[in-house]
Amino acid sequence: MIDQQIATRQVLWNITHDWVMYVLFAVSLAIAGYGIYLRLSIWRRGVAVDRFDRPAERIKLLLRHALLQGRTVRERYAAIFHSFIFTGFIILFIATTVVMLDHRFGIPIMRGAFYLYFQSFVVDVFGAMVLVGVGIATVRRAVIRPKKLVYTDEALRILALIFLMALTGFLIEGWRIAATNDPWGAWSPFGYLVARLSESLMSVETMTTAHLWTWWLHSALVFGFIAWAPYTKLIHILTGPLNIYTARLDPSGVILKTLDFENQDAPLGVKTLANFTWKDLADFDACTECGRCTQVCPANTVGKSLSPRDIILDLRDLIRAGGSDPMLAFEQPVVNAVPATAAEALWECTTCGACMEACPVFIEQMPKILDLRRFQVMEESDFPETMQEAITSLESRGHPFRGTQSTRVDWAEGLNVSIMADARDADVLFWVGCGGALIERNQKVVRATARLLEKAGVRFAILGREEKCTGDPARRIGNEFLYDMMVRENVDLLNGYGVKQIVTSCPHCFNTFLNEYPQFGGRFEVWHHSEFLSKLIEDGRLALSEKLDASVTFHDPCYLGRHNGRFDAPRQIVRIASRSSVEMAQTRENGFCCGGGGGMSFVDEPKDKRVNQERARQALETGADVVAVGCPFCMTMLEDGINARKGDRDVRVMDVAEILWQTMEVESKK
Amino acid sequence: MDILIISFSNSDYDRAAQGVAGAGRNLATVLGGRLRAVVIGPGNAAMNSRLAAVADEVIVADQAELAEYQPEIFLQALTSICRDAAPAAVLFGNDTYSQELAPRLAHRLSGSAAGDGIELAVDNGAIRVRRSVYGGKAVATIELKRSPAVLWLRARAFEPAPEKDSATAAITRPAVDLSMRAPTQIIERKSEGAGEARLEDARVIISGGRGLGGPEPFADLQDVAGLIGAQLAASRAACDSGWCPPSWQVGQTGKKVAPGLYIAVAIRGASQHMAGISDARVIAAINIDADAPIFKHCRFGIVEDYKNVIPLLKEKLAALQR
Amino acid sequence: MNIIVCLKQILDPEVPARDFRIDAEKKEAVRGTANLVTNIFCENALETALQLREKTGGRITALVFAPESGEDALRKALAMKADEAVLVINDGHPHPDPLAVAHVLAAAISKIGVFDLVMVGRESGDWGVGQTGGLLAEELGVPCISFVDNLENGTDGLIVTRQTDNGWEKARSTTPLVVTITNNEYNVPRIPKTRDIMMSARQPITRLTLDEIGVDAASIRAGGNYYEIVDISIPVKEVTCEFVTGDSLDERVDQFAKRIIEVTQAL
Ligand SMILES: Cc1cc2nc3c(=O)[nH]c(=O)nc-3n(C[C@H](O)[C@H](O)[C@H](O)COP(=O)(O)OP(=O)(O)OC[C@H]3O[C@@H](n4cnc5c(N)ncnc54)[C@H](O)[C@@H]3O)c2cc1C
Ligand code: SF4
Ligand code: SF4
């Protein structure tokens, strides 16, 4: 046995004129550098926004999602091949660095055990994994072709290139081992395999010649790859981590930016690409074309034209089509500039946030849609008529429901509910919400909530006729101006009463109070009714011994769940107040929208493309008797969907508060 | 003092004209004057004689210049006739032409006008009109301060005038100088058959919902609609099922309608549907479920399977209309 | 073409019936928490005017007779892109009678000067009087066409389309002219652009007092002497649905049919 201490190999065996390689390397680096410079110079056209604050949190995010690929791994099949290629690249990169350190800089590290275990064995195995990964990816794209994946054929060309790089790598390694009769050859098992196979087929001379030419081919491929990468989606190798580092750190409920209405020059919302922030522009270059966002998009799922991936990629290509002169792309209005930003598509987004949650590199698709909506609404006044009616109604009567025949206090008839103006010392403000007070079906929900609060002895009051919309629908539809005004009015009103705690049964109100009002000086302790009620149970202030005799499935409201990460309280109530509970296939952060957010409950969707019916289908699939909701909009959307789809089955939609109240009623009857 | 009632000859002595005559007769009785009927427009002998049977005098304005309605010329003619007659009140129906002319006539006669009256009264010699205001949420009594009182009435709300026992009234044709050059000229007219009007303008609507179970029942609803001059509409659920055209959809994301009567057949009454009919004056419903929310908004209703109601309803309405 | 559009500011007609109250003293509705809005037919009139201006060019002046609050209606009109705004300040009676209103508007219009067309809504969503257009035409001594929903420039004069009880009519008219506007599917008021709303806040509004326009201010402040509201009340509503009764289905349907006839006849 030869002493392992001296194990190494001869670098650049068989190669002369190696300076050519360094020249090629320099050239490829220059081309790549120019590509990166181009991207940077485009991002710099964007509006400033600080995304480098809170570095500690950002580094944590980076480790979890860039290095450990936190989101990529959610999809198992894709995760396997991606991690093969991804880790393979990292290992090969390290190996190349080692060679360089050893050979160029004379640092003797490519020696001994390290050489054998890492530089030979590990690197060889990971190289093989790259090949396998590329194989899987190719099969997926070329054979299975999931619709979400196929944006361009660029991906296939990239895979072919990676495959060739890895293949030529193994060939030259094998031929070197065979030709030099490398005593450590077996430590590189796949290279060794090539060596042994070649020996039986080729002479040493042939191998030496083949090695020489293939070596140069391999180098050309590698340098070509380096030069080309920044011009393809592979730039995500750089932009991906950057994007993750500069991602939003707050819950997605706070993601929309406020506008400065004093600034006369900037358009309201995004007119041209130049009105996006630099981060928005960087997003375009970070996209990996994975299609996860479009796959989870409820609007896209039911066959509408909206595709968050295509918005990102169409705009990226629009910029790239301009080459080094992106001015062309930067001058025209974004809406309708590319197929994905067609005006109709913008009005299909429910602002559910599923796209953002799914994106492995933290691209923010939904806020861009909102930016375009803002422009359409505020500068063009061009948006769906029924949304216009909602806006008009908000302006003149403080709620979005034109033609409602209810008043703010009808639901409380016969109950002894205090009005804030007469009960300033109340501990809690019960914010009823327009959807709760003015949609007849939901009046039962807020009634149940009020009675539960009463039963638990909570000293609460409502604003009654003084209550007005929080502004959420105005904001999601894109009328930030109206939203801004409504918030300021409400903040004054609430601060005037010295409100400290707010309980609301509407997740939209909840999100707005929790995440958005603080920006306007309204700081409250905000509770969704499910959380408040579940805490009352926990504290023993609401005791229940009965259960609703039904199997219940809970539908996560986007603005409670995904946008704010509250998943457990409503489930807690369902669990203790019903016979049994089941989960739908898509729940919690992967929940599927009811179709009612983002002002979509004010438009009539085409009858064969309704998000609420798709969600109703998913709910019915569980076989549950009751679909539990925690939002007035989910209530109307799902009730409509369930009624249309349930056929002869007896399925009801109930708010968690109603379920809870019903068990109390059963109990009190006994 | 006399009461003048104005009728347009091209609409015959219809229910509206009868109501106006009835209101005029009552007022004439209270004020102790004569009821004088003005028939304006192309000659309509049948109408003249029907009015002669209820009024004390019939003034016919059927000169060649009045063969077709022209606002300025008709206004001129009426002003001239009213000036001569010096009535205490001039009563119109509430058709387009009446509403167009009445205020201007009042101005020319230095009188006062009020419209859409549903009740008339005399208090201390002053004429008072009751009418609904604030979109039907309130009722106001208006006292006219100048004479004559020019009023247009919800004519069908008034009982028709009884025929007189005595001889029929004289028919006069005062000569009116209409040789003016009218600054406006109606040059084209088109009338659309009943049922063609826009849903938004319909006075009566019958609307069908998912409970109908299919497209066929809409044909039965159409029959009922024909009997009472109604138009058809539907809930979104019915439109979605393809039982009727999408343009029939009423509601938050459909049409907003404001009929005098809205009959909802097999419609639950979801908020989104009700948003479209908040301006309806009277809502009635046929629904199998007594707890259906629609009944909360109804003036009257029947809890029954629509299949049992509709055929009978057709019979009854046909009989009542006769 | 110089167009004057008269706008009325009214109590939001969508106040739910259950929130609707009457002030017996003032003989009008209590405002409560409800907003003031521009009467919808007046907005239809402004929209029609804006569309006409797109075809013929010209200027649109929005004219409001109201207390200071009327500024809101004018700001909205400016945001919708009216060229000028005039507020005649009503510092007297809360709801002057229609002749008083017409008289004020006519005086203000004379003060504004030349005009080709005056547009008003066919009636308002509060009192629903439906006389302002006609009376205004008489005050101005110009012809009037009611229930108009479209205007175009014809070879000799305006071509005006208006709705009738069972169809429509087209009229040709010289100017000046007063029209009352009703709604159709094409004159749904546009939603102003936010940018224009922001700009409208900075645009000037001409304010005129009753004394400045040369009317008998005392009589107007007293509400006029055309007519008087002597009483206003909320009718007792049949809040609960009356289910038809009867021993047999036949009887019940008969009742139902009778009620239908009763209602339709009163329309
Ligand atoms: C965003 C959004 C917008 C919407 N916009 C609108 C809109 O603009 N317009 C609209 O109408 N809806 C709209 N909807 C739908 C609305 O929520 C309801 O789903 C819909 O109005 C229900 O229609 P329906 O009452 O006909 O059907 P259902 O709710 O199914 O009710 C059927 C009714 O028929 C009764 N019935 C059944 N059989 C019989 C029988 N044999 N005889 C008598 N009665 C019978 C039942 O008791 C029941 O009351 C909207 C929904 C959403 C989510
Ligand atoms: S927010 Fe929801 S609806 Fe909008 S694009 Fe993203 S996934 Fe689609
Ligand atoms: S935006 Fe994100 S989720 Fe969508 S395709 Fe690009 S990388 Fe994938």
Write the layout of secondary structure elements.
The complex is a heterotrimer of chains A (670), B (322) and C (267).
Chain A: H1 18-43, H2 55-67, H3 76-103, H4 112-144, H5 154-180, H6 189-201, H7 204-228, H8 236-245, H9 278-286, H10 292-296, H11 298-301, H12 308-321, H13 327-331, H14 343-346, H15 354-358, H16 365-380, H17 385-397, E1 418-419, E2 428-431, H18 434-438, H19 440-455, E3 460-462, H20 472-477, H21 480-496, E4 501-504, H22 507-516, E5 525-528, H23 529-538, E6 548-554, H24 568-577, E7 578-582, H25 611-621, E8 626-629, H26 632-645, E9 652-655, H27 656-669
Parallel strand pairs in A: 1-3, 2-3, 2-4, 4-5, 6-7, 6-8, 8-9
Chain B: E1 3-8, H1 15-31, E2 35-40, H2 45-52, E3 57-61, H3 71-85, E4 89-92, H4 96-108, E5 112-117, E6 119-123, E7 126-133, E8 138-144, E9 149-153, E10 170-172, E11 184-191, E12 204-208, H5 216-228, E13 231-234, H6 236-240, E14 261-265, H7 271-274, E15 282-287, E16 300-303, H8 306-321
Helix pairs in contact in B: 3-4, 5-8
Chain C: E1 2-7, E2 9-11, E3 22-23, E4 28-29, E5 36-38, H1 40-56, E6 59-66, H2 70-79, E7 84-89, H3 98-112, E8 117-121, H4 132-140, E9 144-154, E10 157-164, E11 167-173, E12 177-181, H5 194-200, E13 206-208, H6 217-221, E14 227-233, E15 242-243, H7 249-265
Parallel strand pairs in C: 1-6, 1-8, 6-7, 7-13, 8-12, 9-12
Antiparallel strand pairs in C: 2-5, 3-4, 9-10, 10-11
Helix pairs in contact in C: 2-5, 3-4
The structure holds flavin-adenine dinucleotide and iron/sulfur cluster (2 copies).
Flavin-adenine dinucleotide sits between chains B (209-211, 235-238, 249-254, 266-268, 270, 272-273, 276, 286-289, 292, 305-307) and A (601, 604, 636-637, 640, 643).
Distance between the termini of chain A: 88 Å
Order the strands across the largest sheet of chain B as they lie in space. 5-9-4-1-2-3-10
Helix content bin of chain A: 40-55%
Structural class of chain A: mainly alpha
Unreliable stretches of chain A, pLDDT < 50, 5 or more residues?
none
Strand content of chain A: 5-15%
Number of helices of chain B: 8
Rg for CA atoms of chain B: 23 Å
Instruction: Give the CATH level 1 class of the largest domain in chain B.
Output: Alpha Beta
How far apart the termini of chain B lie comes to 37 Å
If you had to describe this structure to a student in words, what would you say it looks like?
The complex is a heterotrimer of chains A (670), B (322) and C (267). With 670 residues, chain A is mostly helical. Chain A has 27 helices and 9 strands. Chain A folds into 4 domains: 160 residues; 122 residues, Alpha-helical ferredoxin (Fumarate Reductase Iron-sulfur Protein, Chain B, domain 2), CATH 1.10.1060.10; 141 residues, Rossmann fold (3-Layer(aba) Sandwich), CATH 3.40.50; 125 residues, Rossmann fold. A 5-stranded parallel sheet of chain A has the order 1-3-2-4-5, with helices on both faces. In chain A, strand 6, helix 24 and strand 7 form a beta-alpha-beta unit. The mean pLDDT of chain A is 90. Chain B is α/β, with parallel strands linked by helices and 322 residues long. Chain B contains 8 helices and 16 strands. In chain B, strand 6 and strand 7 form a beta hairpin. Chain B is elongated, with a radius of gyration of 23 Å. Chain B has 2 domains: 170 residues, Rossmann fold (3-Layer(aba) Sandwich), CATH 3.40.50.620; 122 residues, Rossmann fold. Chain C has 267 residues and is of the alpha/beta class. Chain C folds into 2 domains: 218 residues, Rossmann fold (3-Layer(aba) Sandwich); 31 residues. Chain C contains 7 helices and 15 strands. In chain C, the strands form 3 sheets. Chain C has a 9-stranded mixed sheet with strand order 11-10-9-12-8-1-6-7-13, with helices on both faces. A two-stranded antiparallel ribbon of chain C has the order 2-5. A two-stranded antiparallel ribbon of chain C has the order 3-4. In chain C, helix 2 packs across helix 5 and helix 3 packs across helix 4. The radius of gyration of chain C is 21 Å and the shape is globular. Strand 8 of chain B pairs antiparallel with strand 14 of chain C, so a sheet runs across the interface. The structure holds flavin-adenine dinucleotide and iron/sulfur cluster (SF4) (2 copies). One iron/sulfur cluster binds next to helix 10 and helix 12 of chain A.
